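## retry 2 of 3
previous attempt timed out at serialization; input unchanged, resubmitting
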Amino acid sequence: MSDREEDVRRERLAALRAEGVDPFPARTGPRTPVREVRAAHDAKDEATLENEAPQAAVAGRIRAVRSFGKLLFLGLVEDGTPLQLSARKGDVDDALFARLKALQVGDFVRAAGRVWRTKKGELTLAVAELELLTKALRGLPEKWHGLKDVDARFRQRHLDLLSNERAREIAVLRSRIVRGLRSFLDGRGFLEVETPVLQPIYGGAAAQPFVTHHNLLDEQLYLRISDELYLKRLVIGGLDRVYEIGHNFRNEGVSRKHNPEFTMLECYQAYADYRDVMALTQDMIRAVAQDALGTLEVQTHGTVLDLASDWRELRIVDAIEAKTGVDVMASPDLPALRAALRAQGLDPGEAPTWAVLVDDLFSEHVEPDLIQPTFVTHHPTELSPLAKRCPEDPRLAERFEIYMAGMEIGNAFSELNDPDDQRARLEEQQKLHAQGDDEAHPMDEDFVRALEHGMPPTGGLGIGVDRLVRVLADAPNLREVILFPHMRKESGGEET
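## retry succeeded, writing output
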């Protein structure tokens, strides 16, 4: 907006105040939501409305002003629903017409009058009463052009939502998806709970935390990277089915798949294993998609995801062998696996351990092609310090990850409930941390002591809500589905 336009708006603000008009009143008079007005009258033709002469009062934001001399049309929008306002000089007193003509795009008003239909068929309210509810001091993007700068869209999300119908659709869809997740789990007897965001020991995932400080206690605290260890404490405490939908924080980079602050669903079910959770996950995502989209054929990234058919199950080691020709289980240590890869003409990279190299091979050669819903199972135990080992091969864990559209959206396993094994695994993680692995899991003595009181066989699941929404909304990146994604400082130094 030009400086001159802002000056004009402030001049009008000053004039209103000089006239004794409050440009920011606290209350709105009686009104009917625009959506209800349209529902009541959209099906009526011009003659019917002329005969009935229905009256209505509505409120909303002015999104367009068109003046034709003695005839004035204004576009009003409330909660995404539009309604045209009109006034004809001579049909209303001069003062009201002047006040209507002085309105600018962005202003909020309450208007009352007769509902009619123009000869072009537009449902319209002929204004007989007008109240200014808010005077906008800055203009808005043009409705049909919006914000062209992608960076500006996310920095000024309020303007993006006003001018970009797709942004609004995604915001509404996200709400429906979260509601669907809650509804499904509530229907299965899960209890929604809340666990600490500020934690003295972070855990439950492989990630670097954000660090903060409690002044009064003089104590270093961490923003949680996962809800897992607290939710499992609740299972130990006798809450057999629990879930939480909340924000986690990981001190990592920003990409199409990552945001430092993100929303996770985590749920834990006593007397269940990873296969029970696999069935739960499939049923839940199907139910959410059907509720939010009305279909199990989901258009995303140029293809159609078939959620209705049975989802593929694929062992990670078999997937790597199919893509690279290397049987990683036949090369049981890092030097042997590196040699096997070189023999196939592949670069083994700089992975520090056998398990990390297996994970790197999967990420590079397998993950991008996992378009249809797929459960990838049996991950290296070293990378799964909170999961039970597979009885048939303790090098692998009873774990699966969910992939759709070439992206992981969830992680689950049979929860490790042997406190001695858990302690040993966390001690191994400490060794990895000492060797330079900043994402190794810290020791949590309190959690191990809780396990010593006994936790039943339990299946756990974590789903990245942002990633699930990205898939179901067919969005190109996470920033489209997070209303206020993390952004770098602007050149002027302002935060987003």
